Each structure stands twice: as C-alpha cells, then as structure tokens.
Amino acid sequence: MYSSSGGDAILYCNAVFAGSPRHITDKLQCVLNTAACLVTGTQKFDHGLSHLLHEELHWLDVPERIHYKLGVTVHRCLQYKAPEYLVNCCTPVSDIPSRRHLQSATRHHLTEPRYRLSTFGRRAFSVADPTVWNSLLDSLRDPALSSNSFRQSLKTNLFRRHQHTRRSRDALYKSTIDIDIDI
Predict the structure, then answer these.
(1) pTM of the prediction?
(2) 3-state SS class at 114
(3) Which helix (H) or strand (E) holds 164?
(4) Strand, helix or coil at 62?
(5) Are 126 and 141 a contacting pair, CB within 8 Å?
(6) Which residue intervals of 84-146 are DSSP H helices?
(7) At what angle do helices 125-135 and 62-78 cross, to 10 degrees?
(8) Element (H, E) at 63
(9) Predicted confidence (pLDDT) per residue in 62-89, tens digit
(10) Do 110 and 134 touch, CB atoms closer than 8 A?
(11) Nearest Cα to Cα of residue 17 among 105, 111, 100, 132
C-alpha cells in the first residue's frame, strides 16, 4: 500500500530535491503524510500526525530525508562504493596539498566548489553533497564507520535535530502566548 501511494518515489528521488524551495518540499511532505495515513489507517486531520510519523513509523520528514540520502551517498562515495562520476565529486580537503594544514582537513571535510547560479548551482550534486557532509557532526564524518553504523547514527542525529527544532519552536510559541496574556 505504501509503494502504491508514491512513497517509494519519495524515498528514491528525494536527493534530487536538495536545496529546493520550501513550497516544493511541502508538497512532498503532504504525499508522505498521506502515505502515513494510509499505512496506519488514520484520518487526514487526526491530531498527532507528526508523532505518528516520527515515533511509530520512524519516518523522517522530507527535508531530513534529503539530508539523509545525501549523507549516505557521500559516505558511499568516500568508501568507493558509488559510481566513479559521483566519487569524483567528493574531494576531501586533505587530498588537496595546499589545504592539508587546515583544520577542516583533519575533520574530514569535503571541498565545496564555487558555483555561479544562486538558484540551481547550490542544488547540483557536486555542491549539495559536500555542503550536507560538512554540516554533519564530526563523529558522523569518521571514515572508519561502517555503512550500517553510519546510516543508523545519521538517522538518529536527524531525529534529534527534529526534536530539538520542535522543542525550540514550541518554547517560542509558548513564550509568545505568555506575552499576549500579559498584555
């Protein structure tokens, strides 16, 4: 049922949407939410859809899925388990002689190429993948991590980011309500 609702397409193609505008990822999130309702038998406007997605189904939201897919792709590239044309897009800073002395070289960063078009340039694989990789925690960029350990740690990290963002947003919302009540 999940694959017939387009869920597999979201899982398969989500890296293509790296750097996409929010109105695009919001449409994909609606498809994912609908798939979650189909899988669980809940209604569209039932409360707790976010809880259902994250806590029960262990599904990431679309922006986190994109980061996950890009991170896994880079990890595969760095282990030479990806096609050569993708591996060539992932150049560690430590492989460039003039940059070996930089701190980013010891932190397993990748070089981020320059780009001209601000709309599409940052969405190119050669730019988006190193950008996402460099934004990961140092412990996740450890080249000694196995593929399974990396995937599990990355997903855990993305869930924690989501929970932290949700708590921050809820605290901000609560503080604005408290201010409105005081006025």
Answers:
(1) 0.75
(2) coil
(3) helix 147-182
(4) helix
(5) no
(6) 84-87, 103-106, 125-135
(7) 100
(8) helix 62-78
(9) 888 888 998 999 999 999 998 998 888 8
(10) yes
(11) 132
